[in-house]
Amino acid sequence: MSAFKPLVFSGVQPTGNLHLGNYLGAIKKFVALQETSDCIYCVVDLHSLTAQLVHADLQDQTRSITAAFLASGIDPKKHIVFNQSRVMQHAELAWIFNCVARIGWMNRMTQFKDKAGKDRENASLGLLAYPSLMAADILLYRATHVPVGEDQKQHLELTRDIAQKFNNDFSARIAELGVGVEIQVGEETVNGFFPMTEPLIGGPAARIMSLRDGSKKMSKSDPSDLSRINLTDDADTISKKIKKAKTDPDALPSEVDGLAGRPEAENLVGIYAGLADIGKEAVLGQFGGQQFSVFKPALADLAVDKLAPVAAEMRRISADHAYVDGVLRDGGERAGNLAETTMKTVRDIVGLLQG
Ligand code: AQP
């Protein structure tokens, strides 16, 4: 009996231009984790169908997210980069998890409530079952760690609930087949097939907010383009958006506590910290007591400095369809082999006839 092998998995939807929130909250962490762990990074194209079923540029958006991964420094040879729909086992395991998870669990998800709005009865079944597919993405590789932004915390908790219920419901069969691993669940040690995956959330940029409203997260679907910095924005656009970002009239405080109740100021300080790889304290150590007329140009320069090389590399890689498609094909084959190994055992555990 051995502990689960450490493995990182995460995904990004091809639903539009990537923004600074996606970059700082997720992709920068993906890049850093490559140094210490085996990583699988996925463009979750099946998930994107929950937002928009008829999608003329899905293929190009899939290539563009892949290009963002590669331009940011993800190494597709040492790790795995692929698009979800190439590995059909994601949908197969999601179906089994649909039968494990409870409708009440899905109904409680804040992302479902936000995205379905008032007319929940008219939302797609896919939108409701989104977290079940996400659990399948992660558990298909028995991933132990998932770097995500704070908005995904609840979905990660649900992934653990699904893993735990599967492990419980099939505990006798898992023991009979001898495919379990000892897992610590609270005080208890249980013998399970799926790990209790840990979310990796944190740092100053775990939740980047809209530049127009410090109470709303920066999002691809915000109708105002001024609310976000897209990875593809040019230097002038980045500077203009930061100049127009909502702030309050006071100078920056010298201590992090002084940001309480000042969401827009806190957001801009968090963005600076995330881009510069320092803490908010260090940013305030440098800019405490200064007005936004001083801080905003410094933030704009830093953002241009950090994002322009990524944007240029993204444009170069996106244009090379043969290269991007080759990376996804190769990653899909490697992911598919790992996925099939898991699914053979899952089918045995559930009792499906195969072979
Ligand atoms: N504002 C954010 N701050 C920090 N992290 C964020 N993420 C998203 N927004 C922020 C993280 O980016 C990763 C990929 O996100 P996604 O595209 O798969 O899903 P999403 O959360 O639906 O992204 P958007 O841009 O906010 O899209 P819409 O507008 O559709 O809601 C995830 O790790 C996410 O946490």
Automatic annotation (TrEMBL):
UniProt keyword annotations, A-Z: Aminoacyl-tRNA synthetase, ATP-binding, Cytoplasm, Ligase, Nucleotide-binding, Protein biosynthesis
Catalysis performed (reactions): tRNA(Trp) + L-tryptophan + ATP = L-tryptophyl-tRNA(Trp) + AMP + diphosphate + H(+)
Binding site for ATP: 13-15, 21-22, 149-151, 208, 217-221
UniProt-listed Enzyme Commission number(s): 6.1.1.2
One GO molecular-function entry: ATP binding
Cytoplasm is among the record's keywords: yes
Binding annotation for L-tryptophan: 137
Motif ('HIGH' region): 14-22
Enzyme class: ligase
GO cellular component term, pick one: cytosol
Motif 'KMSKS' region location, chain numbering: 217-221
Quaternary structure (record): Homodimer.
Role according to the record: Catalyzes the attachment of tryptophan to tRNA(Trp).
Matches recorded under HAMAP family: Trp_tRNA_synth_B
Protein name: Tryptophan--tRNA ligase
UniProt gene name: trpS
